[in-house]
What we know:
Layout: E1 13-22, H1 23-28, H2 35-57, H3 76-79, E2 82-85, H4 101-110, E3 123-126, H5 128-139, H6 144-151, E4 156-158, E5 161-165, E6 183-187, E7 192-207, E8 212-225, E9 231-235
Parallel strand pairs: 2-9, 3-5
Antiparallel strand pairs: 1-8, 3-6, 4-5, 6-9, 7-8
Helix pairs in contact: 5-6
Amino acid sequence: AKPATNINKLTAHEFQAIVSIRDKALRRNIEKDNFEDTLIDLLGEAVGRDLEEYALFADTDFTYIQDHVLSKSNGWIKQAANAIYGGDKSDFDPTANTYPENMFNAMLAGMPKEYLNDPGSWKYWVDWDVQNAYRDLLKTRGTALGDSVYTTNQKLAYKGIPIERVPMIERAKAEGVGGPGDVAMLGYPNNHVWGVFHKVTIEREREAKKRRTDFILTLEVDAGYEDENAVIVAYIDKSNPAS
C-alpha cells in the first residue's frame, strides 16, 4: 500500500514588543545603569508569556480591533481537529458530581484510538478549576489516594495519563474578545510545534529629546501541529454548534 502523506506549514508573523525607561528612573533606581539588563530580562519573560498565549489562542475569527496579535493566525485550540462540549445537550455535564472525570473520559472517547499507542506520553492540560475539582472528587472516595492528593502536591492522572495545570489556559475566558471560554486539552507534547524564523533581536533606541530609551524586541513566530487529528479540546462552557 502507498503511504498517505500531508504537509503542515508554519507561517511566521512578525511581532514587536517595546518597553521604555526614562532617564530619571535610571538615575534613581538602586541598580543604576544595570537596570537596563533587568528591564531586558523582564521584557523577555513577558514576551515568552505572550507567545504562549498566541500559540494557544490565536484565532483568525478575531478582528484586528478585537486583538491585533491573536487575529494573525490560528493557535492550538482552534487548529485541533477533535472537540467535545460541556454545554446544553452536549458530550459531558460540568455540573454533574462526576465532573471532571466525566470530561476526561469523554475526551478519551472522542480521540481517534490509532493515536493512543502510549497513553503515558500523553497529557491532559487543564486550568486551576479543573485540577481543583478533580482533587475534590478524589477526596470524596475516602481512599488513601484521595487523602494524598488533597494534602500533598501529588501529581494527578486519569487512566494513566498525567494531568498538568497550565496557568495560561485561564486567559482563555477573554471576556469581550470572543475567546474559547473554559477549555481543556488532551494530546501529546511532541505533536505541538512552534518556530521562530531567523532570530530574535533586541534594539536599543535613544530618544534624547524625550529623555527616554526604548528597547524594541522583534521576532517572527508561529505554532501548529505535526498532526492536528492527534489532539482533542474540551469546550467546558460551550454547546456543540452542530447539535
